[in-house]
Amino acid sequence: MRVTVRVKPGSKSPRVGGRYGDALVIAVRERAVDGKATRAAVAALADALGCTRRDVRLVAGETSRTKIMDVPESAAAALAGLFARDEAN
C-alpha cells in the first residue's frame, strides 16, 4: 500500500502522526543532509507501524519533503491511527 508522507527535518521532538493535507507527518531530528532525514523518516514510519525497516520502501521524493512510501497491507489499521493523531502531538 502506498502512503504520502511529509517529512519535517530538524525537529526538536520527533514524532509520527497528524496530517499535512493528505500526507502523514513525520518529524525527525536529523537534518536534510545526505539523505539522513529520509533514512530517519523511513525508520520512524517502520517503528510506528510495527514492521521492519525493509518493509517500508521509498518510492518517490528522495530529495523532497513530500515522499511516497510503500508499506505492508497489514499495517493499514496502524496507519489509519497515525493519520488520526492530533497535529499537536
UniProtKB/TrEMBL annotation:
Which residue positions does the secretion signal occupy? Answer: none
**Pfam families recorded:** DUF167
Q: Which InterPro entries match?
A: DUF167 (IPR003746), YggU-like_sf (IPR036591)
Gene3D superfamilies named among the record's database cross-references: YggU-like (3.30.1200.10)
The UniProt entry, under SUPFAM superfamilies, shows: YggU-like (SSF69786)
The record ties this protein, via SMART domains, to: DUF167
**NCBIfam families reported in the protein's UniProt record:** DUF167 family protein (TIGR00251)
The record's comment on protein family reads: Belongs to the UPF0235 family.
Q: What is this protein called?
A: UPF0235 protein G1H10_23350
Q: Could you tell me which species this protein originates from? A: Phytoactinopolyspora halotolerans
